[in-house]
Amino acid sequence: MSDLEEYRRRAREWLAANAPGHRAEATPDEDGVARAKAFMARMHDAGYSGITWPREYGGQGLTQAEDRAFAAEARDFTLPIYVFSIGLGMCGPTVLDMGTEEQKARWIRPLLRGEEIWCQLFSEPGAGSDVAGLQTRAERDGGEWVVHGQKVWTSVAQHADRGLLLTRTDPGVPKHKGLTMLVVDMRAPGVTVRPLRDMTGRAHFNEIFFDGVRIPDADRVGEVNGGWQVAVTTLLHERLSIAGGVGMSGQSENPVSFEALRSRADLGDPIVRDQLVELYIRSRALSLFNTRLSQETKAGIFPGARGSAAKLLLAELTLFQADLAASLAGPGSVAYREDGETGDGGDSAGDGGDAGRIAHALSLAPAMALGGGTNEIMRNIIGDRVLGLPPEPRVDKNVPFSELKVNSQGGGTRR
Amino acid sequence: MKLVLTSEQNDLRQAVRSFLSATLPPGRVREVMEAGDGYDRAAYDRMNGELGLSGLVVPEEYGGAGAGHAELAVVLEELGAALLPGPFLATTLATLVLLESGDAGAAKDHLPGIAEGRVRASFAPSSADGSWWGAPSVTAAEAGGGHVLDGVAPYVLNGADADLLVVPARLGGRTRLFVTTGGERAPLTTLDLTRRQARVEFAAAPARLVEGDGLARALDLASVAVAAEQLGVLRASLAAITEYAGIRVAFGRYIGSYQGVKHRLADMHCALEQAESVVRHAAWAAGEAPGELPAAAALAQAYTGRACFQVAKDHLLLYGGIGFTWEHDAHLYYKRAKSLEVLLGPPRAHRARLADLVL
């Protein structure tokens, strides 16, 4: 047995003995967070948190091979690490890339041990795809920054200890050149976290208000007005972590997957057969593309912006399969009793008494096409960086931020 | 599963690409497609001689290179991208059918000629709906110690000048394979000018019975081979229109800078990524995972056939009016793409086959 096989075997043993049986909660309660933190500490003690991260900051200093081996084994288990996914997938790697030695020593180990939960604070109501158009401002006051503004679409903020916060520090220069990245203590005075109810009816995200929040300059990541470079690093890690499925598990329970739909559809109906085959074709083509991308990465061919194609295809497939699942199931997919039984008392949606799951999948489906860059942004990235097409003319590149149209006000709101 | 080319396969791809760019410079396809046999016989002979392509998948014992299906796919992708006219695909598909039959005698008699590039062959299906999987309407009968064929194979790729036809025919209630040099060949008018077809009528045409029964696998392999060519057509169409979008100006901007154009091209790129993945998987399964081949091959046709035509169509449209002119090459890709999509039968047959396999 090779060292890697041995590593993998031991990882599986550990997972079998330690991974809890219950499903991961996307929005855990306080007890859930405490359990997740305890699990993360055990995972770190066992050497499976921060597998590729440097040893001096609490990582294991191993290679992608071990990381992939663990991830492959972990796919069969449901790990309660969702609340750490933003920190592990985006904030931590950004600090490793761009932080000072002192910051790495202070922040990385508690992150890897699950002692501190991180969130990411970039998007605003007026700055989504065009995140560099953000308006949350930070003003210098001696050795501190004073922050006013609002962020939105922030996962796990209600549990977070720290947030990676992108702010405007100079509105007098073009928008990308006046941004600074800070790390905010989420318990500091002036920070208000409110759950944001999304179209599923649940609160997966939060909106965060900053009202004179004071942040020491020692918690600035990167240069003053050099925040955009830091943000680009974070966004790159974000796309990689979506592709790599950091913190994601339990996909086999997807109620609108090909396997789930096949198991309850009328396979004698030729139209149903053709619809299911279309789903099979699209699912299989994308899964083979993802496999090819990971084989290329292993062979030393960096996929770069081509990951945006995989993300775009996944977004379209997600919408398509929820749509198809509802159409196949009929009325029972959109109307059901509160206890989860179908209205006719039987199993007309054929989903084993959990009739709300297709409706929920339908409500959740747009998220993949909007989060982490909309489909339109993905198409711009593919066009510009994969196909090398000429960029669109920009009206905002060389204009001071204070003179730009921002938000939906057409120039009305400036700070 | 192996979905990334090896360095040897990349070398092969490069060799074929270099050969084609030297022997089929821009404009040359047009010159040869409308004249004589519809292809450049001298270039075809060089391709078979210098690169040994005619013998690529023929086993070494019959004078070939004994290469695998992944290598064949690499070659066909390049030939498709170049819209190479001529009987290479037809001969290759017939070769796969002969090889998979397992009839050593037939292989020994016919494959060396094919490997040398002397013999051009083609498969002659004759089912009612044109599907290669359908029951043939051509019938065989015993005659004088051998067999004779009767009936019509209405669409035979490069059938007019094929030296050898591989013909499925009904004999005693079963479908059996035959080889023949006979049949009345009547050239057809084809949408795709770069690839000819013929109607072949058999009237007591003497034929040799091929022993064995590997037709189902051979048709899966043919599906993969055609998908590889489709991948090449798709890739070349996208590359051509991407280049044009970077030089053509309208309203003071390169057209590729407009999202109306850029986003369409991005979707076409997504199709390319998936098509390549599907084709590499099917070619890998052909060699390494025979159990996975039927579904992988049906997927290769169902996905790549559609994607190739969609991309070829959109590539033509994005040129604007110039794409509708006879002089521009866009219509050659469009017509090749549609001809390939229906080559093995109506595309619904691939979806139906896939449904039977995965549902």
Can you characterise this structure?
Chain B: This is Acyl-CoA dehydrogenase. Chain B: Its cofactor is FAD. Chain B: Residues 218-356 form the Acyl-CoA dehydrogenase/oxidase C-terminal domain. Chain B: Pfam families: Acyl-CoA_dh_1, Acyl-CoA_dh_N. The complex is a heterodimer of chains A (415) and B (359). Chain A folds into three domains: 3-112, Butyryl-Coa Dehydrogenase, subunit A, domain 1 (Orthogonal Bundle); 118-225, Butyryl-CoA Dehydrogenase, subunit A, domain 2; 254-373, no CATH class. Helix content of chain A is 41%, strand content 13%. Chain A has twelve helices and eight strands. In chain A, the strands form two sheets. Chain A has a four-stranded mixed sheet with strand order 1-4-5-8. Chain A has a four-stranded antiparallel sheet with strand order 2-3-7-6, with no helix packed on it. Mean pLDDT of chain A is 89; it is low at 246-251, 346-353 and 411-415. Chain B is of the alpha+beta class and 359 residues long. Chain B folds into three domains: 7-116, Orthogonal Bundle (Butyryl-Coa Dehydrogenase, subunit A, domain 1); 121-210, Butyryl-CoA Dehydrogenase, subunit A, domain 2, CATH 2.40.110; 215-358, Butyryl-CoA Dehydrogenase, subunit A, domain 3 (Up-down Bundle), CATH 1.20.140.10. The longest helix of chain B is centred in the middle third of the chain and has 31 residues, at 215-245.
Summed up:
Chain A has 415 residues and is α+β, with helices and mostly antiparallel strands.
Task: Note the gap between the termini of chain A.
Answer: 63 Å
Quote the average pLDDT of chain B.
97
Question: Could you list the spans of chain B in which at least 5 consecutive residues all have pLDDT below 50?
Answer: none
**What is the annotated CATH architecture of the largest domain in chain B?**
Up-down Bundle
Largest beta-sheet details of chain B: 7 strands, mixed
Low-confidence stretches of chain A: 246-251, 346-353, 411-415
Classified by CATH, the class of the largest domain in chain B is Mainly Alpha
The radius of gyration computed from the alpha-carbon positions of chain A, rounded to a whole number of angstroms, is 23 Å
Order of helices and strands of chain B: HHHHHHEEEEEEEHEEHHHH
Shape of chain B: globular
Please give the number of β-strands of chain A. Answer: 8
How many domain units of chain A? 3
Which value, in Å, is the CA radius of gyration of chain B?
Answer: 20 Å
Q: From the 3D structure, determine the CATH topology of the largest domain in chain B.
A: Butyryl-CoA Dehydrogenase, subunit A, domain 3
Helicity range of the residues of chain B? 40-55%
Structural class of chain A: alpha+beta
Q: How many distinct folded domains of chain B?
A: 3
β-strand percent of chain A reads 5-15%
* Fraction in beta strands of chain B: 15-25%
How many helical stretches of chain A?
12
> Ends of chain B: how far apart?
23 Å
Keywords (chain A): FAD, Flavoprotein, Oxidoreductase
Region (Disordered) (chain A): 392-415
Pfam family, one (chain A): Acyl-CoA_dh_N
Organism (chain A): Bailinhaonella thermotolerans
